[in-house]
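Figure S7 source data.
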Amino acid sequence: MQIGNLTIAEPLCLAPMAGVSDGPFRRLCRRYGANLVYSEFLSSDGLVRGTMPQQKKMAFDPEERPIGFQLFGARSETVAAAAKMLCRIKPDLIDLNFGCPVKKVVRKNGGAAILKNLDLLEEIVARAAAAIDCPLTVKMRAGFRDVVFIEAAQRAVRAGAAAITLHARTGASGYATPANWEFIKQLKEAVGVPVIGNGDIRNAPDAEAMLRQTGCDGVMIGRAALGRPWLFGQIVTYRKTGQPPPEPLLEEKFDVLLWHLAEEMKLHGDKRGLLRMRRHMAWYVRGLPAANRLRPELFAAADYQAVIGVLQAYRRQHPNADECPMAADDNEPLPLSTSSGQW
Ligand SMILES: Cc1cc2nc3c(=O)[nH]c(=O)nc-3n(C[C@H](O)[C@H](O)[C@H](O)COP(=O)(O)O)c2cc1C
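Tokens for the predicted flavin mononucleotide complex:
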């Protein structure tokens, strides 16, 4: 996949996920095979005002490259100024968010709400593209309420977008209806830039199916990678061999969890890092025998050593855990699918 001057070998992307796609998680997914990772979304207003949380989100490790930083905002001059500021950290690309349905973003006419005003969308893309020296890409839903993605994408490309990611459902539908991959196919036929398909990939065969069925250039994965960063490696293997890839052993899963925890604590401090990791820990143990008893024990752990203790005790109590079906059930809803007002 060629996005401007950027060549992506295996077209597997980690989705931007607020509160999740920080440095440690991006590094994990990169190591397992994600070939393009995105930051959490950053507020253009916040960046221009110089607020600390936005500044902190700009940090990344060279190991994460190629990396895209994502911005949201509803005023073209502010988005352009923020994009220009982001160029100082030399991202591989800058992505604009036209997909967020979360109330506090939409209320200020940002995210998916911009799909209600395609003149504004085009103006934002044009001004941001003119302000930066790396490729500009756009991630959008199919529309806010009405389906407008073809016109929205064509206008974005005309204004300078070098690739389009489509989360194939409308903003108003949240996660309530299944993603419509047909939209991704239609978009691929309608624009001349790379199209990255997104929505409801659960496992390696799904990723391959989206590539095949829609003809998209790349796939982006969000919720299915939560607690399963190795999914990217499984997709690489599946694409090479056509064989359903095995689940990692418990030892590897717990090693990854502990590495992730240590990195979160380094980045955010011990207390906040542990708090942020609680939902990751819940995701890591999805599908394990007696996960419902393990989760509260992990939540109660007061520090890193206590988490190690809980995991060691679990392994002693479940010596055969690796022989049980370990993968999260494919019919189970993806994490965070049902939370209202959320992504
Ligand atoms: C916790 C969470 C946070 C998200 N944050 C962002 C974000 O910052 N920017 C964005 O464009 N999309 C965000 N999304 C949407 C995802 O990038 C993706 O489009 C969506 O989850 C559909 O893909 P999936 O079915 O693979 O999860 C978020 C999703 C989740 C679950």
